Amino acid sequence: MIKERVTQIAKSKGIKKEIFFSRIGTTSANFRGKAKNTPLSSSTIENILSEFPDINLEWLITGKGEIYMTKQDSTKCSELQSLSSFGKYPVKLYDVNKITSLKAFFEGKEGSVLDEIYVPNAPFCDGAIYITGDNMYPLLKSGDIVMYKIMANLNHVIYGEMYLLSIKFEKDSYVTVNYICKSEKSGCYKLVSYNPHYSPKDVLISSIDAIALVKVSIRQNTMV
Asked: What are the phi and psi torsion angles at 147 (to 5°)?
């Protein structure tokens, strides 16, 4: 199990879990909520390999081989990293209809895999989903696929980029895809749609409970 392999690294290195998770950019509490087979985010993989370069990437991702690299493993890992960098590593396409919370989905508590996607020269992404709604039409339309990278820090957005986000609204929440721009209101982001029928909207940063940078969009134009 992926979760068990990550904690096995800490045990094999003789590092306390709290210190280990801090070094790879997360906390044991956050990691404890993830399902055992939830794929690791690209940032977590990068942090693990940066902190512990002797860890076998193939073992970390698939469970095959040994925890530490041999010469042969080193060659395989270089190939895997190269494939990941050029979009030849599979990105899981999730069924968004099976989730009730984008936050829970990002934490690995919900969602089922529909398929895997390979996009040449694409950046590393954490997953992909079908979108609904027309607020980004005609740039995006219902049924298009977006590939995303989960962001851990709400304050690290890049103004003018497109994001998939969940906004808390009273006792409910809704999921949207929008450009995020700088707001004139303190503590807010301005959400801007591509569709001119939707006016820009200021939302409290504190009301955003999940966010991911949209890195790739895919549209199918024919039935077959």
From this structure: -105, 135
Question: CA 30 to CA 192: how far, in whole Å?
Answer: 31
Q: What is the CATH number of domain 115-218?
A: 2.10.109.10
- In which residue ranges of the chain is CATH 1.10.260 found? 2-85
- Strand-by-strand arrangement of the 201-204 sheet: 113-117, 91-94, 127-130, 145-150, 208-218, 162-169, 172-182, 188-192, 201-204
Return the pLDDT at 81. 53
The token duo for 3 is 């979760």
What confidence category does residue 68 fall into, taking pLDDT thresholds of 50, 70 and 90? confident
Name the CATH code of domain 2-85 (choices 2.30.170, 1.10.260, 2.30.30, 3.40.50): 1.10.260
